[in-house]
Amino acid sequence: MKHFTVVQELKNIEKHTHSTCDKCGKEIKKETYNAYNEDWFEIKEGHIYPEGGCFSGYKMELCEDCSHELVEILKFNGFNIQEVVIEY
Asked: Which residues lie below 8 Å from residue 21, measured CB to CB, with a gap of 6+?
């Protein structure tokens, strides 16, 4: 879950301050050495056309531990989860 704070400039705006795991509530720390700083699980359904479109869906932000737990739950329930390794 993303949390915001109000910062006064010329007008009040929302500024992203931190994110918390939607399962356990731990803060998701933004680190440069791992990829656990993005939205983790997202499903979008809808249509897209050149002039526009419409989507609806679901989204969860999960910490590293809960992400691994979700993968194990999905595997246990018969989902074929493919591991992806990306090297830079």
From this structure: 1, 27, 28, 61, 62, 63, 66
- The amino acid sitting at 74 is L
Separation of alpha carbons 68 and 84, rounded Å: 14
Query: What tokens does 59 get?
Result: 């989204």
**For residue range 7-24, what is the model confidence (pLDDT) as tens digits?**
766 777 788 788 889 999
Residue 25 tokens read as 């509530």
Closest among 87, 45, 39, 88 to 67, alpha carbons compared: 39
DSSP-assigned letters across all residues of 10-64:
SSEEEEEEEEE-TTT--EE---SSSSTTS--EEEEEEEEETTEEEEEEEEE---H
pTM above 0.70, yes or no: no
Q: Is 7 helix (H, G, I), strand (E, B) or coil?
A: strand
Residues in the chain with pLDDT < 50? Answer: none
